[in-house]
Every structure is written in structure tokens, then in C-alpha cells.
Fold this protein.
Amino acid sequence: MAGGLKSTEPEEEFVHSPFIRKQGNIYKPNNKKQDGDMDNDSLNEKSMMEDVHTKEIDLVNRDPKNINDDVVKVDFVDVIAEPAGTYSFDGVWKASFTTFTVTKYWCYRLLTAVVGIPLALVWGIFFAILSFVHIWAVVPCIKSYLIEIHCVSRVYSICVHTFCDPLFEAMGKCFSNVRISTTKEV
């Protein structure tokens, strides 16, 4: 930049949409803080008393762990392609692209509106049951098994040291004087 001041603010890169809201990208219940309402002491006090079930939801990046990167990214060019020499009319191609894109967009939105909340309820119940079983059944069973197997391992160790150690020690002494040599006959 010749003769201009360089801005110290980093430029924003829009990954999803150029129309990102300045406020409200993060949804959090009871997010009604006004500027100057709280000083640092009351803010720290409030953060310690905050409900652990209240989580922030990013309304822009809805797949922060990228679990669906390789599965559901299907665009028009991934499904429909015309090889060189067999092109349809330009208007048909544009209309097909628009129809595919809009249909996919609105069908997804309608399906999530109709089926998304019931499935969220089902998956919430499923993972609650899974957590319950893991916490109250699986981990205690594993701990119980480890305690019991520790007693069994002690008894097994005593039996091995009592019976097998002398036997193998005697066999080792018997065969310690055995010498094997190989000769090549011509």
C-alpha cells in the first residue's frame, strides 16, 4: 500500500456466507448482558454459578469437528455432468442447476423441521441410556472384574512359582550340559 495507513484489524474470511450477523452468531439462553452492567467481580461470580447444561451454540459453523466432511457434500456437479460434445441448451443447464440446488436445500430444511426434533429426542434418549449403562453398569462391572482377577492372578502366580518354577529349573540344569555341534559331511 503506497502512502496509506495499514489497518491493524485482521480481515474476516467468510467460509459459509458473506451475510454473517455481527451479533447473535452464538446462541446462549439468557444472553441479555448489556455493556457496563457487570464489573469483573460480578462477572466472575456469575460464571462460577453458571448452569452446566447451558452451552453456546455456533449458528455459523455447525460442524466444528468436521464429522460430515466426506459424507454429505454433494453438489450439482458431483451428480450431473455432461461430457464434451453432448451439451444441452444453456438455459436447460442453468434451470437444472437451480432446480437441483433449491430442491436439495428446501427438502433438507423441510425434513429437518419435520423429523429433526423427534430424532434429536430419540438420539438424546439413546445417548442418555448409553451414558447411564456405561456409568452405572459397565464401569462397575469392569472394576469388579479387575478386583476379582487380581485375587485370581495372585493364586495363579503362587501356583506357577510353587509347581512350575522348580520343574523348569530342574529341566534347565539337566539340559545345561548338552552341547550340540553341527558338522558338514562331504
